[in-house]
Amino acid sequence: MDFSYPPEVEQVRKELRAWLAANLTDDVVAAGRQRGKGDATFEKLRTWNATMADAGWAAVSWPQEYGGRGATVLEQLVYAEETTRARVPMPLNVIGMNNIAPAIMQYGTEAQKRTLLPRMMRADDIWCQGMSEPEAGSDLASLRTRAVRDGDDFMVNGQKIWTSLGYRANWCQLYVRTDPDAPKHKGISCFIVDMSLPGIEVRPLVTLSGEADFAEVFFNDVRVPADALLGPENGGWRIATTTLSHERAGAARLYTEMQMRLTELVADLADVQVDGHPVLEDATTLRRLGEIALRIKYLEVLCQRSISAVLHGGDAFGSASLAKTIWGEVGQEIAALAFDLIGSQAGARRWADYRLTSRSLTIAGGTTQINKNITAQRVLGLPRS
Amino acid sequence: MNLELSDEQTALRDTVRSFLAEKASIAGHVRPMLDDPTGTTEAVWRGLADLGTTGLLVPTEYDGAGMTMVEAGIVLEELGAALHPGPWISTAVGATRALTRFGVNNAAAAPLFTGIADGSITATVGPLDGARPVAVEQGDGIVLRGTIDNVWDVAAADILLVLADEPDGTGLFAIQTSTAGIDITLQPGIDQTRKHFRGTLDDAPAQHLGTASAEVVEALVDDLVIAWAADALGAARAVMHLAIEYAKVRQQFGQPIGAFQAVQHLCVDMYETVELARSGVIHALWAADAADRDERHLAAMRAKAFAGRLANVADNAIQVFGGIGYTWEHDAHLYFKRLLSWNAFRGGPDHYLVDVGKQFVESVLH
Q1: Could you give the percent of chain A with pLDDT greater than 90?
Q2: For site-directed labelling of B115, which of A96, A261, B13, B95 has its Cα 20 to 30 A away?
């Protein structure tokens, strides 16, 4: 039982810390917080992504042949800790780099790998993922967007929703139904689609916070060349569910993100008074803070345990699903506490926004309720409902 | 970083688990011991000692295993899962850590350490909170005078280690429990698998073992809090498993109740809590020997702060069992009470949650 990191990993931490101290500027950090709002911030983040990529810090988990560092799991863990603590903005192509790139590396042609991956890493291209549909949310495998073979092309018709970066993306990893007669998991294919093709229409999807964080993407007789197929025809579900991200310490982001949020909240509360009393001297507030800080610490160790299991071949005990549930709940508790104390004060717009947007933490990427069903059945061995 | 159990640690866990299942089961041992103030039999204690568990924390120069709280925690989790009623935590952790934390290595220490390691001595330590007795010189020796409260396992113990106030710190004294001058009363609590005592020391002859600062006493209390947390983790794990297995076989409305999502979610909530608790416990067990004072103490405070949530595992388990879980005959209530007594130990969670909150604020603002 050892919680310490080996010296060679601490060395990577030191190098990264030094590089960030020299290169990460406040305006980049600010742009990261304003993520998705306005073209200027977007372009600033794009430039920052390229800076990181050119210095070799953009995709440390990728194999070296694709521009990564082939970082070990513990190096990835330290990378996640340090970039979160320094408030490095998440890469614009975070979904692309974690979820799409590994599929391209595994199933793509040499040409696709050579051209697409470096441009993704630098954010020269922006990638979106066409998965969810109006009738296929948590139940992704029931997606209906159709692709029908027509000569050398596929004709695509349908609609995607909740597409992050949909209105910025020039590439899309698209999941469609190519065999409507097969069982639902066996009739799905994956394509790499150029978003400038005729017949693709993107509409911003305005969320409850008033921001256009997502898009709806409509495919109307879109002619996609057959060589845009990624992996085997009708083999898309396998790509969606079994492509292994190189990011094997991603769990670390869950706790580091919440550590930072709680740290920032406490800093913002330092001068806040309610009814003439400093809130940070109020036992009820301290109790709520303690409850959250405690769960974040335990989430940290839970994530470290899952990473340790990866490293040493231990039992992963369904930790990914547990960690995601806890992360979402903790985020919502932070948001509620922040809003209860300062949400209505001038200048606290950020926490008011978080009170609204944190609702998505237990929805996006599979709802907490579906997660619990899956854990009940797959981890605890309870019968299917 | 490696948070997996080693092969030796896994073997220790499995050995203790199968010993308890065979020789100290709930029906065969725990229930018969509910009204016994010692909570143990000679045979069961001998068995635990022969497995080498009582000497896990005893330094190797005294024929112990010289191991850390991590190994003790592995045993404690199994003891908690088996609702073990004996004085293991008091002897193998409480008394042993009192001796090592106080740095006792004089002639008096050797027979205590070796006796604990070979199973010939059972011991306990206290009081951990509240008023302490005073040491008075009398003739050639020292006697202790005063009351002690909330001390565990005194009826089972051969040796009572007493924390008493001294001018330059806290003294650690040993008293033979067979001696005149000790009067103890079992304090019936909610949890009959734990034996708590109140006692009066009326010029009880005592041997001075050592003197230490308040920080050393704090470290000893942290050790016991962390040990308790490991025990409670075992109890929570066990009652959760019982409930989940029950949900797989109990049929209502023509299907196992575990097929109902509402029941599934109760089970997953229990699992989430148990795995969070496990995370806290392994960190605290590691911190007890490997971390600095602040990290160790905070880890112990967190464990106490989480006790309320952990006790809810037993609430949820009984909810899954339904009516059968509400009976005396069923074992669920024994787990429920073990977890409730951990929850109540040294005060409920609120105070500790506030403390953890304060610590976090301090860490940000200073």
Answers
A1: 81
A2: B13
